Amino acid sequence: MGDLFRFVFVLLFLGLLIFLGMTRILSLGGINPNLALIFFSGLLLEPYFKKRIKPGFLYILLFFAFAVTLILSDFWMLPWAILLLIILAIFFLRNFFTGRSFQDFLLAVGLGTVIFYGALKFTAGSVFAGGFVFGEVVYNLVLGSIFWLCLNFFGKYGYLHESR
After folding, report:
1. Which of 8, 85, 90, 143 has a CA 20 to 30 Å removed from the CA of 59?
2. 133 neighbors 114 (Cβ within 8 angstroms)
3. CA of residue 60 relative to chain centroid, distance
4. Quick one: three-class SS letters along the chain?
5. How far is it, in rounded angstroms, from Cα 126 to Cα 85?
């Protein structure tokens, strides 16, 4: 399978995640998971993909995600800008984490969610709601663990593997 097909597949999957996030289909009790944070953290920290994600590819994915979000709704501009900064921080700091990929992933998703809401509340000048954020951290970690298992399967045995 060529690199172009993999790239298009990842872009389409990212577009699906943006759609699911904006329509709140996976919302549970008013808590909407941060699917983009889970997606990018998984791609940047899962061992198979960690070796293959180059800065140019990441920048194209982030630009695509930001452009799609702006086209669909300009309301999400500030949250996406904060999220993109968090994702770039994960990218540049990923070699300084613990070295255990799954724990690094859980750490990135958990701290990324807390930092995202802290920065969002700070820029809005409102109060940080710890209970709500804790619920979203737990929900993101559960969905992130499922996504991690899927990444491991597709990275080792699936359609994204290079031996096919």
Report:
1. 143
2. yes
3. 14
4. CCHHHHHHHHHHHHHHHHHHHHHCCCCECCECCCHHHHHHHHHHHCHHHHCCCCHHHHHHHHHHHHHHHHHHCHHHHHHHHHHHHHHHHHHHHHHHCCCCHHHHHHHHHHHHHHHHHHHHHHHHCCCCCHHHHHHHHHHHHHHHHHHHHHHHHHHHCCCCCCCC
5. 21
Q: 17: buried, middle or exposed (CB in 10 Å: 19+, 13-18, 0-12)?
A: buried
Task: Retrieve residue 54's tokens.
Answer: 């180059």
pTM value is 0.83
Q: At what angle do helices 3-23 and 55-72 cross, to 10 degrees?
A: 40
Backbone angles phi, psi at 24, to 5 degrees: 60, 35
The tens digit of pLDDT for each residue in 122-161 reads: 887 777 777 788 989 999 999 999 999 988 887 666 544 4
pLDDT tens for each residue of 27-53: 888 888 888 889 888 888 888 777 777
Q: CA-to-CA distance for 7 and 89, rounded, in angstroms?
A: 22
pLDDT recorded at residue 90: 92
